[in-house]
Write a structure and sequence with these properties.
Length: about 220
């Protein structure tokens, strides 16, 4: 199951204040992106890592990879204006021998190598798989400030990453999106758009995404624990 991991971290970190990229913040003895890379480095099914990032962050990412002893890093490329464009830029760098593509948020450093492996295994069976956890709270659908629906909680999951797809299926999804001028914010949507069936792999609630300033404090607590 030769898998290329594309780690996306080309956002502007506006909800963090935007001054310093969240992937370059300290996490334990490493930076956020270093911890993220090491999780994929330690997964036996991942054969290479491609990172799509802001141009100004590329030198620091390469330096962190070297300091962390990451050997699977194949390339660090400039990201696009949207997530989908950033992933496509990463796709251009993966090996021809790749069988599966695992797309991950660079700001999810606490993903566990064993969870990455399980997601890849599930994708090898179903064609696609995404890491996720059941929602804990009751969810309301709201329009114009008024509650209009309460979806049954047993059917609802918090979608995480990585999201893993057979290479052929994902490429079909990308082609479909480009042909129809679509720009998806979630990678599963590309596969779903061309009829792909996505398995929900049970993940871990600690696989948080660092989005706002308090998230880095929580991540450090979880990491040190």
């Amino acid at each position: 199951m030769k898998t290329s991991a594309i780690i996306v971290c080309a956002g502007n970190s506006t909800r963090m204040g935007g001054e310093v990229s969240k992937i370059l913040l300290p996490l334990g003895e490493r930076l956020v992106i270093g911890v993220t890379m090491l999780a994929f480095e330690q997964c036996e099914y991942v054969t290479e890592i491609v990172i799509s990032a802001r141009q100004q962050d590329i030198p620091a990412i390469k330096q962190e990879a070297e300091k962390a002893g990451v050997t699977k890093l194949r390339a660090v490329v400039k990201g696009g204006q949207t997530r989908q464009q950033s992933v496509i830029n990463g796709l251009r760098e993966i090996s021809k021998e790749t069988e599966f593509v695992a797309i991950h948020d660079g700001a999810r450093p606490l993903v566990k190598p064993e969870d990455i492996a399980r997601t890849i295994k599930d994708a090898s069976v179903f064609g696609g798989a995404v890491l996720g956890v059941p929602v804990k709270d009751t969810i309301k659908t709201v329009e114009d400030g008024l509650v209009v629906d309460t979806p049954p909680r047993k059917f609802l999951y918090i979608t995480q990453t990585p999201q893993v797809f057979g290479k052929k299926l994902y490429y079909e999804g990308v082609d479909f999106a480009l042909e129809h001028g679509l720009d998806f914010t979630d990678d599963c949507q590309l596969a779903e758009a061309v009829g792909g069936k996505i398995f929900m792999t049970q993940g871990d609630y600690t696989n948080i995404k660092i989005t706002t300033p308090e998230d880095i404090d929580i991540a450090n607590l979880l990491y040190n624990k």
